Amino acid sequence: MIRTLLLLLLTLLIAVTASLHLGVHIYGPATVWQALFGGADGSSEIIIRTLRLPRTLNAILTGAALSLSGLFMQAVTRNPLAEPGLLGVNAGAAFAVACGLVLLGVVSIAGIGLLAIAGALAAAALVFGLSGALGPAAGPTGILLVGVTVTAMLASLTQLFLLIDETALETLLFWLSGGFADRPLALLWIGLGALFIAFIGAAALATSIDALQLDDQSASGIGVDVARTRLSALTLSALLSAGAVAMSGPVAFLGLIAPHITRRLMPMRPGFLALALLAMLTGAIIAVLADILARLIVAPGEAPIGAVLAFVGVPFLIHLLRAKRMRGVNV
Asked: Which spans are transmembrane here (predicted)?
């Protein structure tokens, strides 16, 4: 555990260092140091201090938040394919942003971020309410089925709004593509707050979530309130996803792949709290590396972060589906 933690911290430090140095223009260590600590105001210093540093911090927080969100979902639903988008969070955020653009004329990134948070949390609350109406007979995967249904409905409504006002399409597409660049620093405090609350929640729920890895009946037999634990964990997952969506827009696959990569780094399965800490670091590393690739692969342009992550996420998802099929287990 300690060895893996140190390895991940070192890898994150290397990734952050590379992020500050690499891009359309590659800067040396002396230039980066002068930009961060020398207070100079040259063009290179401005690029490093006002563009690369904020987007790197954004990538760290978004990656950590989505990874922990996915870990919560996979743990309490016992479904390895669960990820934040299945709660309807991304679709709810997109619908709220579309409403804001068409009905209220909101075009600022900060305004879009606040609309995204409201829409994400409202969609998650709708999913929780509908799944609760199904009762315990729906099982741990019932909420995922409800989430897929709500996601499809909200996506259709979003398309309808865009047909009503096509001028909003360009702004919405910029936000829907996801990314870590050109985002207000003030939104990072939202993500940081969500991450802090969720990690405290992970510490409080860790023992109960570990018990849920058996089955609901066994967990109930040792005194775990299964329904309360699951609802609390999924609420924290929704909060993390809303914070990430506000910071960076919808970023796909991070919440799916980071928890699985983290588990594969451990020779023995740790408790949920230790796994949560390692997953946050893993998600941050993946996000920073993906952001570096987005700058380089189509330079001097920049690839959408979602497209970069899809190159890893889609094959990984296919691998998980094949593994589940070979074991004869339903997802």
From this structure: 57-75, 87-107, 114-137, 143-164, 185-206, 238-259, 271-297, 303-321
- In this prediction, residue 127 carries a pLDDT of 83
Structure tokens that stand for 122 in this block: 């409202």
**Domain boundary assignment for the chain:** 2-326
CATH ID of 2-326, from 3.30.70.20, 1.10.10.10, 3.30.565.10, 1.10.3470.10: 1.10.3470.10
Per-residue pLDDT of 108-164, as tens digits, reads: 767 777 888 888 888 888 887 887 777 665 555 677 788 888 888 988 888 887 777
What single string gives the DSSP state of each residue in 54-117?
HHHHHHHHHHHHHHHHHHHHHHHHT-TT--GGGGTHHHHHHHHHHHIIIII---SHHHHHHHHH
Coil/strand/helix, residue 24: coil
pLDDT tens digits, one per residue of 267-301: 777 889 999 999 999 999 999 999 999 888 887 77
pLDDT exceeds 90 at position 196 = yes
CA distance 242 to 89: 7
How far is the C-alpha of 255 from the C-alpha of 211, rounded, in Å?
A: 22
First-to-final CA distance of the chain? 29
257: Cα separation from own chain's centroid: 10
In contact, 269 and 74? CB cutoff 8 Å: no
- Nearest CA to 212 among 220, 203, 201, 202? 220
Closest CA to 175 of 83, 241, 247: 247
151 DSSP assignment: H
Yes or no: say if 31 and 48 are a contact pair by the CB < 8 Å rule: yes
